[in-house]
Structures are given as C-alpha cells and as structure tokens.
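Readers of this paper often ask what the protein records in our data store actually look like. An entry from our holdings is shown next, in its original layout:
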Amino acid sequence: MLPRCMDVRGRRVAVSVVAVVTVLAALPAVLTNSAPPAAPAGFASAGHPVAAPASADQFAIQVLDSAPVPPGAQPWTAPPPAVLNGWMSVAVSGLVDLDALYLVDDPALTGLLPNWVFDHLSSGATEGASGTFSSPSGDAEGFTVMLPTSGPNEYLAQLQYETTEAGRGGYVLRIDAQVVWVPDRSGSERIPLPAGAELTGYTTLSLANPSSGPVSVQLDEEAGARLAAAVNALPLAPDIFCAEGALLFTITFQPPVFSPNPTYSVSEDSCGSTVSVGEGATQLPALSDTGCSLRRLVAGLLPVAAVGTREAVDRC
C-alpha cells in the first residue's frame, strides 16, 4: 500500500459550498492497462476481514485505507492546491474527515477515474454526488462514493475524490474518508416493558406543512412490547441539519398500572430517519432508524387508512 499523507481534521460539521456545479458526463468503464489491486486491508474489503473499529478515528482510517488509488500515483507532499479545500458534502455533526493527496502523472486518467474506482471497490458501494467546482484558485472535479456500514456505531461512511490540474501535466488527486461514528447507548435510556401503546400514523405527509389526517390505534401489551424492543435496539443518531422534514408517526407507551415508570413518547422524522424519545418531560438523546426497522414495524401495525406513513416504508 502506498504511504499516505494524512490530514486528520477531527470532528467537524461539513457544510456544502455552492459554486459552479455541473453533472459529469458518462465515462468509459475502466482504466486501461490497470490490474485490480489486492483486497484492501480496511473497511471496504469483502466481509470486513479486520476487527470492527473501536472509535471514529479508527473507522476513518479503515475507510481511507480501503480507497482505490490509480496505478502509478505518488504521494503529494506539497501543500494541497487551494481549490481542493472547498468541496464539502455532508451536513451532519460528528463528522470525521481524513484525507490523502497524490500526484497522478497521466492526465488521461482523470476522466476515467469514477468508473475505475467503482470497478475496484467491493460490492455495496453506490454513487453519490458528482460535479465540477470553480473558484478563483482554479477548477476541480469531484465525486463521492457511499459505502455500506455495519454495526450500531457506523452511521455513515463515504469516500470523496477530487482532482485538479497539477500545472506540469497530470493532476493532483485528493481522497477524503468521511465518516460519522456514534457511541453506544446508555442502558438507562431504554424504554421499560409497557402495558400497551397508542400508535398514530398519518394519511398525508408533507415536507412543507405538518403531517395531517392522524390515524390512531390502541395496541395491546404484546404489540407495545415489540415496539419498545424495536426502539431500544436503535443506535444513537448524530444531529442532522435539514431544512425540511415530515413527521412519520408517534407512539405513546403506557406504563403498567401502579408502576412508577413515566410515560414514554416516541416519534420519527423523515429527515435523517431521526427518532425522538421523551421520558416524561425529559428529552432523551435522538436515535437513528436509517435501517427502517422501526418504520417497517409501525407500518405493519397501522391500518390502511394511514397511507402516508405506510407508504413511507417504500422510500427506505
């Protein structure tokens, strides 16, 4: 594996930068005369052959180690071109960004890079945003690769590739590993076994207006326990910065008679699949339902009239 000039930027909020952005044209499938690399020793290798990361920084290192690097690329040790510092893509708290810089001598490789990268990643990777970036300091092209995650702590993993002309032929390539890692939940934040629950879905969901047409059902102890267990199994969620979102459903868990337990309230928003949990009047840390496990269970317990909530499962 090539030595990498890494820059750990730490946890930060990444905000998209608006510039001149255009969609990249379709590109040839593979780089010519380049053999597939050996299976990477990190995150994106098939089956996660290395131990699961124990921290956000370790997670970022594994993701960066898995990034395919074009043949013949050499580490770039000079300061990075300024234009490669402006293409950020994730608006979420807790982001860890780790990058590596390379010089690629063959300028013909830049147009073939996106498809070559996908050909050299393990299965499960999907294409994210792509475009061009213009600034007073120069022009750059970039694209992102969304990687599959596993385990309750891995919330987001993606690779970001950016290129700009090197000035003497070839181009400078910057590869960023961008990850979000969430800690384990506290056992004290779990919902105790309820006596039942009231579940409310909606006929109409809207990003511009409050969800409307509430449809409520009263659930027995067994169904309430299934919902509580599904909520308890969710990992913590980072703060997602969204301009719009829609309320998908609400759940009110009823404590057993004579129990000192408070009433728990749960709701899910379509923005980031964020689940809010209230313990009486106390708001607990937000949870993440990106795997849609809670949403699917809710949809199966609601009547057909709650069409807006039920159809939200199709967008998982």
